[in-house]
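tool_call predict_complex ligand=6-diazenyl-5-OXO-L-norleucine
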Amino acid sequence: MSTIKKQLVPSFIAIFLSFFFASAFAVPPEAVTAKNGMVVTEQQLASEVGVQILRQGGNAVDAAVAVGYALAVVHPCCGNIGGGGFMLIHLANGKNIFLNFREKAPLAANAKMYLNKNGDLIPDKSTEGYLAVGVPGTVMGFELALKKYGTMTRQQVMAPAIALAEKGFVLRPGDIAILDKGTAHFQRQAKIAAVFLKKGKPYQVGDRLQQKDLAQTLRYIAQTGVAGFYKGKIAKAIVEDSQKNGGILTMKDFAQYKVEELTPLVCSYHGYQVLSAPPPSSGGVALCEMLNILEAYPLKKLGFHSSQGSHYIIEAMRFAFADRNNKLGDPDFVKNPVTTLISKEYAAQIRKEIYLDRSTPSSLLPRSPSHAENVNTTHYSLVDKWGNAVAVTYTINRFFGSYTIAGRTGFFLNDEMDDFAAKPGFANQFGLVQGEANSIQPGKRPLSSMTPTMVMKAKKPLIVLGSPGGPRIISSVLLTILNILDYGLDVQAAVDAPRFHQQWLPEWVDIEKEPTVFSAAATEKLEQMGYRFKKHVLWGAVEAIFIDPQTGLLYGGSDYRRPSGGAAGY
Ligand code: DON
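tool_result ok
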């Protein structure tokens, strides 16, 4: 197996530095290369589980389900069985599939459930405890994927996850950094502290994290599948705990939950076909809208992170997010003008509104307030030796979701209800402003930004990618695609390159704190154009695979921003 440790500095910076300090940085970090199969996730052990399944003869879907369960163990902040997500599948026979296993609002949910009697938002109500929890979709999503498109049994693909939960795994610095984010919350609940803390204190590098309850739950799911989760012991444990603790979940919510098989959203960019996430994700629509806008600008000629090129990219983000925030919601409940938003004509119209030499104040965009969200999630990408490819982004929303574990189930439940517009027109805690299309209704799915995506060349995958990061998922995916297609960066450099983000409101442009995104000269020019920048801690974690169309070689690029992640191939 060929794997690499995560590099400490972004590779393209290393390339730069190596130019000046040849001896210190002689070998810039590179993507992992393999011939037969590649798995890139945010936890190295999960990537290895994926490769193990591929080596056993499983296809990319088998491996995707195995990885999904393994991440629920080794990446408990984000990998999950208590949340939901999306799976984009390309089969070697040419068929493309999109599975929607996004959570649903409980049937007893209502538009005012997070407001006090004055109509004001009650802090934390949509993010912590049982009222934050949407009906989970992951187990049913994985089941459908495996049954319809996999080749192995549930027991086979779940075995590695069960072993990791039962025997435990050794925590590395990246794991500790993420667990640390939950310490204060873990300390408040004895049941959670007993597993995720060591005698009440944070784990240290080298400690072993064992999750016996989770192992038991996974064994039960391996035996009973969807029935056990949605109608059996697991649903009962969650409903009982929810009722005891002010929640509204019922057995009917679980019994009625359904996964949807959809057609991926399709658009094109410079002759490449782009497959991405349709509503209830906003990701594919916004990505396609931005790519359409940008297609007519000479980005490559203008240069990587040049002021003029970046001006166009930021404006594309601003216009696309204004639409995303106002016009999209669960298509089972609201009409989404997808065809218009991803048309080339609409992009041409927007380009006419973009100034050559100055930024557009967001307030001038003829759109009214709307949507938002939140930080945490995980993405992984896989390709097998037959040419099947899978991109999965799934989430419990924030790190460790609602900080709720039902009974002895051993897994965190999501706080996905916070992805709804708890009060339309008002910014949530992350600054996005949400609208009516995404208001709460019983059984509705909250709008998502998750953007599992494939860029296709001659109907075969060229890039398989996605990211966590709330709304920044969409811009992270966009920038990575541009970095590869327009700026010619290799996949690792493309993933690692510093990021910027604009989401219509607030008005400013977020830039990653370090390393510097724009040169001093480009920053000055952009400021003259009217841009204001706000430094932000690093965001997103793009886990991507590039498939060389000539040689068929697979290159895995795992984001340095999640140091416990890695690419594994064979
Ligand atoms: O579905 C969504 O868009 C959000 N729940 C995703 C949250 C997220 O990516 C947080 N990750 N860092």
